[in-house]
Amino acid sequence: MELALEQGRVLLEGLPYPDDLDNHFVVDPAKFDFYAMDGYRIVGEDQRAGIYAREVIRSSTDPDGTERKPMRIAEARITLGVLAGRAGDLDGAITYRRRALNGDRKSLPSLLMVSSELTDLLRTQYGGAPETTSFLDEINSLRQG
Predict the structure, then answer these.
(1) Contact, 20 vs 26, CB < 8 A?
(2) Where in the sequence is the domain holding 78, given as residue range(s)?
């Protein structure tokens, strides 16, 4: 994965900086951190995944707190939820997941798909906890929505 990330970074650095980052057909250099976050989370490099998740949130938020990239921030919060769950922090995992799914602008189907890793983790590690049961009921109602 490290090699793939490095190859991606080299390719990205060779491209001209885009004029319009809101154009979905250009490569946003800041999205590299987003992809690195996912990769590190998936391979279990929790410390690195957390660093990238916090950077995604920071770089996607204006100084006044306005979230310019709400979907990236939501997915970074899901990553932080997975990391909290892996570290034994059930409340933190649920809090991050709720913040991710309660934003104003979101693609709920996409977020539910991305967050399935966290849902599985909560079900497996904390299945007997009342907080987990309540939370999973909430997710099921969102899916049926």
Answers:
(1) yes
(2) 2-144
DSSP 10-72: HHHHTSPPPS-TT-TTS--TTHHHHHHHHHHHHTT-HHHHHHHHHHHHHHTB-TTS-BS-HHH
Position 115: which residue type?
S
User: Residue 115: phi, psi to the nearest 5?
Assistant: -85, 5
**70-86 vs 116-126: helix axis angle to the nearest 10?**
20
Supply the pTM of this predicted model.
0.86
Q: Which residues contact 75 (CB under 8 A, 6 or more apart)?
A: 34, 37, 38, 56, 100, 111, 114
The band of 106, judged by pLDDT with boundaries at 50, 70 and 90, is low
Domain count, the chain: 1
Q: What is the CATH number of the domain that holds 123?
A: 1.25.40
Q: What is the pLDDT of residues 36-95, one digit of tens each?
A: 999 999 999 999 999 999 999 999 999 999 998 898 999 999 999 999 999 999 999 999
